[in-house]
Design goal:
heteropentamer; A alpha/beta; B alpha/beta; C alpha+beta; D alpha/beta; E alpha/beta; D: FAD/NAD(P)-binding domain; 5-stranded parallel β-sheet; 34 strands; 27% helix; elongated; E: Rossmann fold; 4 strands; 42% helix
């Protein structure tokens, strides 16, 4: 903790950056984003298993883009988002000073009692962050045992369902959506300043939170994230309706991996998989 | 280095001299290379045109055995080598053949082990320098035509041994013995082994070409790494000499024998006395053996 | 009037019976570990062991979307279709802060235009409120002069006397009628469970001076403090949509070749598109401007119009916020700035 | 409010027999926005077209739907008519109720219902259509030809003949290409130099042609009609203007280097002209071998040059030129022979390539035409020619046929027999392909008059046996093994794309196949065009060709260039993508998927010039209107005019009853 | 008289191959089911997954998407891009439990008039057997 504070102070006082985005504690088992612009404000910075937010989502805001340079406290998984933002021309490597955190995993579930380890952490490849300008925190343990008590129905379970069961499941889940767009706003990859759902010529997606609108909205968001989602799980965490949004996203990312051998957010030179193709891309449904 | 030795049937039966000299080298170099447990015939020559599945399943059994031993496979006979490689390819690449093989054997085989020819191991894992350092009796003044045969280098994609037209691996090994490897064009020409029983005269002609080309290029002896080539060049040499009325008198060594000689091993231990064209006159004339 | 008692089983039976009829019943339901107040049917399990629902009760009366005009086109031309009349509603499971919010919101819908969709529903709604037994760090009804046992906006208030039973208090005539009509479910007062502890007004600390907020907002619209307070906000509508007093809506048309539907949908000032002009100019372009609007509307503009703060201190917006925005914290800061005369 | 006119065609009985056109017109008339709906026997006739024109004027129509045949047939006709009546042509759409309806259905009721639907969909679309303007692109009346071989020379000459200035770009020190290395050419046996040199002189003397040798394309920007090319002029170290080509420098230069032009069989100096007829006949210093550069000594050439033309300090230069059109004629290379170990190339000096053989028999070659084999200068008594070396060999090398080897091998057997009258020429072949004018006759002459012995089969190995080479192979016609003792073996190695052509294609934004050959816009119907507008292809750059084909293609490409540059402005359809900048995030998705590199980033700056953000920007000159960009844009900030989201949505919605 | 239900099929086709193939079916008088309504786009690259979704929601019982065979695209690569989109879009719909038998993808060239006709008839027959696509139509109901 001390090293983050010291680093932030150093970066701000030396003028390397004019903003540090990090975390502060806001409850026993709760942290939240913190914007630090002056060295003396840095004392509140923390890093622990409650630092679940993907702060990369702030990088695409105008006021952050306008900074001379911004430092961001980022877990390995958050850096995947930064990589994608750079690939997609929303940021540059030079503009972001990455304070990479060695991360033994974060919690999942809702505040104020998030006790379970996050599913994404169990398969994490970047506990030691890649590409960071400075890496802080103790080296994370080699492996964290799988916790069998994950409650949300995982991808395999979904795949086992029959088509009718799937349809019924998603009808039920998506009927809860209130279209607050917390998923979109929290998502680092949803940076459009004008979302397709906000267009009305034509109105592809009904803005009402009825089943059609909700289904269309969630289909489009998942589709737009296919090959781009970096599995941070923020959408699911912030959803006030508790819709298992990551279930859909994970399924699609698995498909991308299987079909196009691609995982997003690890390679600055890669192209989003839906913007490129191979002449022998395999499919078995086109006649 | 963690190999198990797969001699194959030829080295067990028709070419014990190759086997004996190989084991002599293993012992001399203190290499930890036990035999593969329960190895079976690779099915070479007879099986693959008849039953593709069986011809791949037989080597697969040997691969499985080595896998259980947790060892990679060292092999000497090029035909065994080729069949093991081919079987490994089929086992590690998804497809119908992989499925059929698994079904035929009834067990899972990952086949993710190394399969290497002994000469490759000597070259790549022990190294010329280390071998050179062990030479105590340099084979001075002997010119050797290195004859690789056709199997070890082809098909190149599968065998990945050396350049199929002008390989150098055995040449380099032989050179450290102090002998001189001659440059000649027939290193990988076929000796005709496939026809040696059915159309012997074809084989005789092909082998004759090889022997005379070796002689023409100034070779005193030939070095081989294939038991079948050896039979044709060595065992049939007197027959060829009679048929074509031309004297060759070219001793045909296994490369292991030449290395053993240079390391100062007992000729008996290298089974030199088992060669049909006796090498002793040559070796004596060059002052290598007294 | 004698005190009446109702226990869980009876209440469940009552609500289920009503739900089986022509009346819509809204009650707390557990979905994936969280409690929502939603419309139930006669066999929906009702969830009682909760602290506060994620959503507010406003959904019952001011739904997420509702049709306000419907038409069909055929060879003869356009034909308007009827919108079905509103059904009576029993709204159970809100806390006093929820009930109070109905009083705040109805002012808006009866103001310059009488929104009969809202008013019809409101007038046909019986509000059965659960007085609070718990509170958390985000609760601040007392700061706004409300109480965890308040009666504002309720027709009936249920005060726990044990884990399983409540003392029912009719606040309005309609509440009284309701109890009388269903008197078989209520029993006369038993001996209250002395061991049962609930909370009092004083347990929830008053966090700020509500009257200090408006003048400060009026004078410090351009204060840099706004940016500091709201920099984390990522402009979703979660806070707005769970808020019992947020009431903005949008009207959209959904037309197809042969039919059309006009609906009133929830909208939120926190979303970027809310003020986007056709010219693409957006007067509230920055994130802080939008959150400022939310606070300023609740604590200043609404007060100007209706003499009441458009917030009842339920704290839902703080609980739901993924970015960790906390309204109590912001108001406390404003109030303390106001006290100090700071900007 | 839209005012739509609908015109339902009977097409005689073609439509009217199956579709109740009256009912269709009447039903459509009731759609809101349709102010005029009529049926007529032949809409495409002059009276029919007049009906459309008159209705446009009379009813002030904002859009028209003609329900008749496929738009492929008459869209142009009706749009022209609309345009004549003052309606933007893109405000007219056709509903295809003939090919897609009346001709494929029997039941009149069903067909009528379908026709009504199809028309209604078009009405709904046209209501949302926006007037579009054809794109007009100004043209730079100048062309660039890349590659100075015979193909490039011909293209340059033909373009210049049309009065258009041309820049002829060649990366070697001289133009001439491979043809200048050949001895005589099939099937006429005329001397290659004799027919090429006049063309080289002609192109050099043409005032409209600027030859830039020892130069390469560094970068290409722009689009059809408006390319901006950056040319890298490599440092020649010789002042070309002042130099007279007197030859003093290369005579005195002490450094001998094997000559590329002579295919390694001859010698040149470190300062050299590649061959005597080179154009420009100005030398160039080979930095890699010149002692001044390698060891900083010598400097003789500078000392003795009578006109002080030598400058060791020359640096490469970059020149920007603007051209309207480009012809790519980058030719070919021979497959590197190191790939053929079985033939012993490189190991045995007397195994040579066909191009080496050309130099060995050429009167201007290193031996002045006296055929000697490389090893011992002996006149070869037996020569074995091997065809398809690397070609038609999908397992190991190239699957394609190199097309010219059969003929030049036949020619070479003749050239050989002309030099060695009693010599034996053997040819190993797979098939003989002699499909050109006089080719088969020529081949027969090689076989019959010149006694070339053709053996159908592959060669398994070539080896040295004493002074001789032994060629072992199969004769598949007699099913026997052959073993030929030869003095010389000539390999007809495969033609491959030259080194650097992929990089060039990437700079040009044109496609190439897995072999590096450039891809035509259409293999049959647009064979000299690349998929990128304004860039044309000719010769072996596309795939192996002989000289006549290459030259014809050069003329073909030149005609395309002239056709294009004959106008002051190019006009193309207005169906192009358009970016809504306010919501574009500049994520580059559209840029990545655009097959025509028509989209690039554009900087948005504030008044002070500070970069605010970047957005996509479509170059309408390059955009072909495929619309692949549109679905790729998450915020739908790029749309395809003429097929906008709104228009297509309207078509879908025209079928819908939602509530 | 009870009206027999007939499915509505919307086909999104590219201009250069499948639209021309449908024209060829016309000029060749290959008969096919009259249930299809063709919407022309320049290229399969233009065909947005949203089109398919919208069509199903707005009354189509089945959707056909068809364009040039791989390597035949008039714009060289539009269909390759489209193929990737469809692969992902289908994967998404599969996991949502959308009935993918309702959506048919095909490559149909300008010379394959017979293939086009067969495709339309086959799809129409299949959808007719499946019945109206109520799952998506129900989404439009305004149930609170």
């Amino acid at each position: 903790m001390k090293e983050i504070i010291e680093k932030a102070k150093e970066l701000l006082s030396q003028g390397t950056v004019d903003l540090v985005i990090g975390y502060e504690q806001c409850g026993d088992k709760q942290c939240r984003p913190l914007f630090v612009q002056k060295p003396e404000e840095a004392d509140k910075l923390v890093f622990n298993e409650f630092c679940v937010h993907n702060l990369a989502t702030y990088l695409t805001r105008p006021e952050v883009k306008q900074t001379k340079r911004v430092a961001i406290v980022a877990k390995g998984c958050d850096i995947r988002a930064i990589v994608n933002l750079i690939i997609e021309n929303q940021s540059t490597r030079e503009h972001v000073y990455i304070i990479g955190m060695n991360c033994p995993g974060v919690v999942s579930g809702k505040a104020p009692n998030p006790t379970k380890p996050h599913t994404k952490c169990q398969t994490c490849k970047v506990r030691t962050p890649q590409m960071s300008d400075v890496t802080l925190g103790p080296t994370p343990p080699e492996s964290i045992p799988m916790d069998k008590t994950i409650t949300h129905p995982d991808v395999e379970e979904l795949k086992k369902k029959t088509r009718e069961e799937k349809w019924a499941f998603w009808r039920e889940q998506l009927s809860k959506c209130i279209r607050c767009y917390a998923c979109r706003q929290a998502c680092p990859m949803c940076y459009c300043n004008r979302c397709i759902v906000d267009l009305n010529t034509p109105q592809w997606i009904d803005t009402r939170s009825n089943l059609r609108g909700n289904l269309d909205w969630n289909i489009v968001r998942a589709y737009h994230l296919s090959g781009r989602c970096i599995d941070c799980g923020e959408c699911e965490r912030v959803c006030p309706a508790n819709i298992p949004l990551m279930l859909l996203n994970r399924t699609l990312q698995e498909e991308v991996k299987e079909k196009f051998d691609f995982e997003s957010g690890y390679d600055l030179e890669a192209c989003p998989p839906l913007t490129v193709f191979e002449k022998d891309d395999h499919e078995n449904f086109i006649r | 280095m963690n190999y198990a030795y797969y001699p194959g049937c030829s080295l067990e039966s028709t070419s014990p001299d190759f086997n004996i000299s190989t084991e002599a080298l293993i012992e001399f170099l203190s290499l930890d290379i036990p035999e593969v447990d329960d190895w079976v015939c690779c099915g070479a020559s007879s099986l693959h045109p008849e039953d593709k599945l069986a011809s791949l399943a037989l080597p697969a059994l040997t691969i499985e055995s080595a896998e259980k031993q947790k060892r990679d496979i060292m092999v000497q006979c090029p035909a065994c080598y080729a069949h093991l490689r081919e079987s490994q390819e089929a086992l590690t690449h998804e497809g119908t053949m992989q499925d059929n093989l698994k079904e035929a054997i009834g067990r899972e085989i990952s086949a993710k082990l190394k399969i290497k020819h002994f000469s490759e191991i000597l070259m790549q894992e022990i190294g010329l320098e280390a071998l050179q350092a062990k030479v105590t009796k340099p084979l001075k003044d002997i010119k050797i035509a290195n004859y690789y045969g056709c199997v070890i280098v082809r098909p190149q994609e599968l065998m990945q041994y050396d350049d199929p037209e002008d390989p150098q691996l055995m040449d380099k090994l032989v050179n450290i013995t102090g002998a001189e490897s001659v440059s000649w064009p027939f290193k990988t020409k076929c000796c005709g082994a496939g026809n040696s029983i059915s159309k012997t005269e074809v084989t005789l002609d092909m082998t004759y070409q090889i022997l005379s080309m070796a002689k023409k290029n100034g070779a005193d002896a030939i070095s081989v790494l294939c038991p079948l080539c050896h039979i044709n060049l060595d065992f049939r040499q007197p027959q060829i000499e009679r048929r074509y009325k031309e004297k060759f008198n070219l001793p045909v060594f296994y490369y292991t024998q030449l290395l053993g000689l240079a390391f100062g091993l007992d000729p008996k231990k290298l089974a030199l006395d088992r060669l049909f064209v006796s090498p002793f006159p040559l070796l004596k004339s060059k002052g290598i053996l007294s | 009037m004698a005190e009446l008692i109702i226990n869980r089983d009876k209440l469940t039976q009552l609500l289920h019976e009503i739900a089986g009829g022509e009346t819509e019943v809204f009650a707390p339901v557990l979905k994936e570990e969280a409690t929502y107040i939603t419309k139930i049917s006669q066999d929906t399990p009702i969830h009682y062991d909760f602290f506060i629902s994620v959503n507010s009760v406003k959904e019952a009366i001011f739904p997420r979307y509702e049709p306000i005009l419907k038409y069909k086109i055929d060879q003869e031309g356009v034909k308007l279709e009827d919108i079905p009349p509103m059904k009576p509603i029993v709204l159970f499971g809100g806390h006093p802060c929820d009930a109070a919010s109905l009083m705040v919101m109805e002012k808006l819908f009866g103001w310059d235009y009488n929104d009969h969709f809202y008013q019809d529903r409101r007038n046909k709604t019986i509000v059965i409120t659960l007085a609070c037994n718990e509170f958390d760090k985000d609760c601040f009804c007392t700061s706004l002069g409300y109480s965890p046992h308040g009666e504002v906006g309720s027709d009936i208030v249920l005060e726990s006397i044990s884990k399983e039973a409540w003392k029912a208090k009719a606040v309005t005539d309609r509440g009284k009628e309701f109890i009388e009509k269903h008197n078989t479910y209520f029993a006369a007062s038993d001996k209250p469970d002395a061991s049962f502890k609930t909370i009092g007004d004083k347990d929830i600390p008053v966090g700020f001076d509500k009257d200090a907020v408006k003048p400060w907002i009026k004078e410090n619209f351009e204060s840099e403090e706004w940016q500091k307070l709201t920099s984390k906000c990522w402009s979703c509508a979660a806070c707005t949509y769970v808020c019992p007093t947020c009431h903005c809506f949008d009207i959209t048309d959904d037309a197809s070749m042969w039919s059309g539907l006009r609906t009133k949908n929830w909208d939120a000032c926190t979303m970027p598109i809310f003020t986007l002009h056709a010219s693409q100019h957006n007067p509230r372009e920055a994130y802080y401007q939008r959150y400022r609007q939310r606070i300023a509307h609740k604590y200043s503009y609404y007060v100007d119009l209706f003499k009441v703060i458009s917030c009842t201190g339920c704290g839902r917006c703080s609980r739901v916020c993924g970015a960790g925005m906390n309204i109590l914290e912001i108001l406390t800061r404003i109030s303390s700035l106001a006290k100090k005369g700071g900007k | 409010m839209a005012k739509i006119g609908v015109f339902v065609c009977w097409c005689g009985s073609n439509i009217a027999e199956t579709v109740d056109v009256k009912r269709a017109a009447e039903t459509i008339a009731k759609i809101p926005g349709v102010v005029y709906s009529v049926d007529y026997k032949y809409m495409c006739s002059d009276p029919g077209q007049d009906m459309v024109k008159n209705a446009i004027k009379e009813y002030n129509l904002t859009g028209v739907v003609v329900a008749s045949c496929s738009p492929r047939m008459h869209e142009k006709t009706f749009r022209k008519a609309a345009s004549e009546a003052g309606l933007n042509p893109y405000m007219l759409e056709m509903a295809n109720i003939r090919e897609h309806c009346s001709w494929v259905h029997d039941n009149k009721e069903e067909a009528t219902q379908k026709a009504i639907d199809l028309i209604r969909m078009m009405v709904e679309k046209v209501k949302r259509n926006k007037p579009l303007q054809n794109i007009k692109i100004p043209v730079t009346k100048k062309a660039l030809v890349i590659g100075g071989g015979v193909t490039g020379i011909q293209a340059a000459l033909d373009i210049a003949a049309g009065g258009i200035p041309v820049i002829l770009l060649e990366r070697e020190p001289s133009i001439g290409g491979h043809m200048s290395m050949l001895d005589e050419t099939f099937p006429t046996l005329d001397c290659s130099q004799c027919i090429l040199t006049p063309k080289m002189v002609e192109v050099a003397q043409n005032p409209l042609v600027t030859i830039m040798t020892y130069s390469e394309l560094e970068k290409l920007e722009g689009f059809i009609g408006n390319f901006k090319a950056t040319i890298k002029k490599k440092a020649r170290h010789v002042n070309v203007e002042e130099c007279t080509g007197c030859g003093t420098c290369w005579t005195k230069c002490p450094t001998k280097v094997t000559s590329e032009f002579e295919q390694g069989l001859g010698i040149r100096k470190a300062i050299y002209i590649p061959f005597p007829q080179a154009i420009p006949s100005r030398p160039v210093i080979d930095e890699a071998n010149c002692m001044k550069f390698t060891q900083n000594r010598c400097g003789i050439c500078a000392k003795i040059c009578p006109k002080q033309c030598i400058s060791y300090d020359d640096k490469e230069e970059f020149i920007e030129i603007e051209v309207g059109s480009i012809v790519v004629a980058t030719g070919y290379d021979l497959m590197p022979t190191s790939a053929f170990g079985e033939y012993g190339y490189g190991k045995y000096p007397d195994v040579v390539t066909s191009l080496q053989f050309e130099r060995m028999v050429c009167a201007s070659g290193p031996t002045l035409g006296d055929l000697q084999r490389p090893s011992d200068k002996k006149k070869p008594k037996t020569v074995v020619f091997i065809q398809c070396v690397g070609s038609r060999d999908p397992e190991h090398h190239k699957a394609y046929c190199s097309k010219i080897c059969c003929m030049y091998t036949a020619k070479q057997t003749m050239l050989y027999r002309h030099k060695v009258h009693d010599g034996n020429a053997y040819v190993f072949y797979i098939d003989i392909r002699s499909n050109g004018k006089n080719y088969e006759e020529f081949l027969r002459r090689a076989q019959e008059e010149n006694k070339a012995q053709y053996i159908r089969g592959r060669v398994s190995m070539v080896y040295q046996d004493g002074p001789d080479l032994v060629v072992e192979g199969a004769d598949t016609l007699t099913n026997s093994q052959v073993r030929i003792r030869a003095d010389l073996v000539v390999l007809a190695t495969a033609m491959v794309s030259p080194i650097g052509v992929k990089e060039l294609a990437q700079k040009l934004g044109i496609g190439y196949d897995q072999h590096g050959f450039l891809t035509e816009a259409h293999p049959k119907l647009r064979p000299v065009e690349s998929a990128t507008a304004g860039i044309f292809l000719a010769g072996c750059a596309i795939s192996p060709r002989d000289i006549p084909d290459s030259v014809s293609e050069a003329s073909g490409a030149a005609a395309k260039v002239l056709g294009m540059l004959s106008k002051d402005e190019l006009e193309k359809e207005g169906v192009v993508a358009i970016v809504r900048e306010c919501s574009c995030t500049g994520c580059q998705n559209c840029i990545r998927v655009c097959p025509f590199t028509a989209i690039a980033l554009k900087d948005i700056r504030d008044k002070a010039g500070n970069l605010i953000r970047q957005v996509a920007n479509v170059n309408p000159g390059l955009c072909t209107g495929c619309g692949t960009c549109t679905p790729t844009c998450p915020s739908r900030s790029i749309d395809l005019q003429g097929f906008t989201d709104e228009e297509i949505f309207a078509e879908i919605n025209a079928m819908a009853e939602l509530h | 008289m009870e009206e027999k239900w007939e499915p509505t099929i919307i086909a999104f086709v590219c201009n250069w191959c499948t639209y021309a193939g449908a024209d060829l079916a016309g000029t060749s008088r290959f008969k096919y089911a009259p249930n299809v309504r063709i919407i022309k786009t320049p290229c399969t690259g233009r065909i947005d997954p949203m089109f398919i979704l919208s069509a199903l929601e707005r009354g189509a019982d089945g959707v056909i998407v068809s364009g040039c065979h791989p390597n035949d695209c008039h714009y060289n690569e539009g269909n390759f891009n489209a193929r990737r989109k469809y692969i992902m879009f289908r994967a998404l719909l599969t996991q949502l439990g959308v009935d993918l038998d309702r959506v048919t993808f095909a490559w149909c060239s300008a010379s394959e008039g017979i293939k086009f006709a067969g495709l339309v008839t086959e799809v129409t027959d299949r959808i007719r057997k499946m019945g109206p696509y109520t799952e998506f139509k129900q989404l439009n109901q305004d149930a609170r």
